[in-house]
Amino acid sequence: MAVVRTADSQVPDVGDGLWERVRDAVQAESGAATSLWNGRIDYTKEPGNRGEAWDNGTVCFDQALVVQHLQEMYATRGQPATREQWIARRNALKTVAHEFSHLASPDGYTHADRLAGMQKPETRPIEEGVTEAWSQAALDDLADRVLPPDLAAEIKAVRDDRGPHSYPGWEPAARAFANSVGNQTGLEGDEVLRQMAKEPRTTKARAAADLLYDNSELPNLVPAEREEAVRQEIAETIDKGFAELEPLNADQSVNRRAVSKARGAEIGDSASGVVRAAEERHRGGPNQEQQQEETLDLGALPPPNAADRIPTREEPAQQQTPAAQATQQQAVDPRVAFAQQPGSAGPGQQQAGTAQAGQQAVDPRVAFAQQSPAQQQAQLGASTPGETRRTGAAEQDVAALRGVLEDQPSAAGAPRVPQGQAAEGRRPTGQGAAAGRSTEHTPTR
Q: Count of alpha carbons within 13 Å of 89, Cβ hemisphere only?
């Protein structure tokens, strides 16, 4: 059952359930799963505090700046009112939306969770900045949900008249940051604010980081085991940028709104920079390894047979012991040896790379046997008269070798794959408030 205003609240009901309707509208518009409001509404006690949202779920509103304007709006409905009166009423409604936005929460989030977040002062700029920016942006839609059509129309008519926006050092930064993220992701800035507004203060930056990550090349580049670390790296950059804005809201020696707007854009650029750097880091890693692996056609040559192996004809540098000779006689799968050669970006580059690196030469008869008949004939025809005897011997060796290769079973029963063809199944390459409450202040004009 939905919570309603408690009978012991200091603030009376307005408009036959306005407080409950705003609570529900904020939850619906933001997409939050629930609200932590406990049903109590009291008056603020500190001058300048338009509204407060406490850790236990109580909300408070300034009697003169908020409650009386809304009471008057309903009491004088249908009577003429000045533009200034409607601006004051609009901002009163905005304050109510702002405080209920603080309490909009995901499923399973508790008052204790909220208090733990509120005890981290570095999160206040992003919490208050985003909450104020979203409340301003969503107010027309909220008015349509909670007010009679005639009152909603009057509220929306003064949208472009600047009222007392709260948090001049933080709200413009949140708006500029949301626009920056929107430009990079193809979303509207208001949608970015909505995605952040429904999250607690400790995960607002993560909501924006996820938007940046999901709308970049990173999902196709980053291994699953690295994904969380990259997302968190983006979020930490955002959190750090907003935390550094903490002193700006109280600094009246500068144009806070202008400075805040510029800083918000810079935070967006920094987050984008982390995304681009992560793309560059991961673009060459796993993909290049995959491409290299798929280039090596391990099915192109048959596995060795120790009985029919042709040893490399190489003069030993020194007399070897029988044990050493036995070790040297062990068969090496030529496919594996070929794949392990340096510079193995491709079959053509492997042979040249091996020769240049001074590695052990591949038996020329093996290489000759792998050539097409036309290539073999051309090579034999190019022999000089003095090489006739050696050529004839080579032809006999090749014939014997061809018989061995044709009779040799494939490795592990796998089908032989001609060079240049991909093995079946191979993947293709490419791819200032007291702890315990949130307060809203009327800025010094």
A: 26
